[in-house]
Specification:
The structure is a single chain. The protein is of the alpha/beta class. It has a domain at 59-209: Vaccinia Virus protein VP39 (Rossmann fold). It contains 7 helices and 9 strands, in the order H-H-H-E-E-H-E-H-E-H-E-E-H-E-E-E. The strands form 2 sheets. It has a 7-stranded mixed beta sheet with strand order 5-4-3-6-7-8-9. Strands 1-2 form a two-stranded antiparallel ribbon. A hairpin with a 2-residue loop joins strand 1 (60-63) and strand 2 (66-68). The radius of gyration is 16 Å and the shape is globular. The protein starts with a helix and ends in a 10-residue tail after the last strand.
């Protein structure tokens, strides 16, 4: 791995290890999720001016009114998604800078990600290529409609908050699939785990969270 990928100073492996210890203290138990976050060079997903803060457990701005999610939330959502067992294909709604996308790509077969802002989708594709991930597909489109072409999905993770669970996403969730999604108004959003089983669809609240609202259409 190049020095750019390893990082130096505040972006070094030592800084990453401190973050992993913090996530463990906060309750993240999955060894594979923690390893994926440790191995992902988060400083490459933010502006150079913010690189020294990349391994803090905070959300950071990425432009266009969007943020790179707090590492704890990325870990929490990924762990919840994987708790049901191995996943072949996962749909991500809200690619953003591509950080969550790359974490997922280390843990599942294929990641299909939808981003409504074209500039973010383009940069996320460039980062995935730079890091040599061949199991990531990114589409510029309306995330509220999912990506029907590749459905059904074993898992779906959503990184923007609608007021309710979009019907299109439920329809694209496969048998025994798991959907992790924040829902609600700003200031009162719940992180939900929705599981599909033979007995029906089951819903569980995981946490209180704060995400940007899900917007329909493309930008």
């Amino acid at each position: 791995m190049s020095n750019d990928h390893r990082g130096i100073g505040m972006t070094s492996q030592r800084s990453r290890d401190r973050l992993i210890r913090r996530l463990s203290e906060m309750g993240i138990q999955s060894a594979v999720v923690l390893k994926a976050i440790r191995d992902t060079p988060r400083h490459l997903f933010v502006d150079e001016a913010l690189a020294s803060r990349a391994y803090e457990n905070n959300a950071l701005p990425i432009g266009h009114g969007q943020t790179i999610s707090q590492p704890y939330i990325v870990a929490r959502m990924t762990e919840a998604l994987l708790n049901g067992g191995p996943l072949g294909n996962v749909l991500e709604i809200g690619t953003g800078c591509g950080y969550q996308t790359v974490v997922l790509a280390q843990l599942v077969g294929e990641v299909y990600s939808v981003e409504r802002i074209e500039a973010l989708a383009r940069k996320a594709r460039e980062r995935a290529r730079m890091l040599h991930y061949r199991n990531i597909r990114i589409n510029h489109g309306d995330g509220s409609q999912g990506w029907p072409k590749h459905a059904p999905y074993d898992g779906i993770v959503v990184t923007a908050a609608p007021l309710g669970v979009p019907r299109a996403l439920l329809d694209q969730l496969g048998p025994n699939g798991r959907l992790v999604i924040p829902v609600g108004l700003p200031g009162e959003q719940e992180l939900l785990l929705i599981s599909r089983a033979e007995s029906g669809v089951h819903e569980e609240r995981l946490d209180w969270v704060s995400f940007v609202p899900m917007l329909e259409g493309v930008g």
